[in-house]
């Protein structure tokens, strides 16, 4: 993901400095990377269904969070097939007119945009729960010190994760809106900047998860 979006910044800079051949080479790299990422999402419905089952058996503490996640899951159930059909049509695997293919692609991005917008509400509720939990641990004067320290570490990680996810969502929002609008004038350098922002914080999250 980082390569896909950061390459757009490099392409923009290369074109601005008169290095068109370098820009084209970067395009030649980024296109298959983007294509491969979409191809990998062909199995996305399986973990999504697993997650849908999981939250029903292990719901979040807030009922509102549960409802938001249910709606988000339903949105993604719609998103994946639309993206798959667009990708197959784009690569001439299935026969669909260009006009219809573009509409399918736009609608897939609209579903994604709806998910991202809902995610801001999700994060806001998570932040509220984090603040409550933080206040509760401060008030806790009795109890095992080791348990309290462990709880504080968990709370700290929760805070860091919510902040990271917020930046990721901020990065995704303009991209999803841009791709949801036919003939959008949002510049490609903007896609590169916001996409790189989201990719960077995803890398940070993956790095921290790998080292926990």
TrEMBL record:
It is found in: Peroxisome membrane. Its main location: membrane. InterPro entries: PEX11. One of its GO terms (biological process) is peroxisome fission. Keywords: Membrane, Peroxisome, Peroxisome biogenesis. GO terms for cellular component: peroxisomal membrane. The keyword Membrane applies. The keyword Chaperone does not apply. Pfam families: PEX11. This is Peroxisomal biogenesis factor 11.
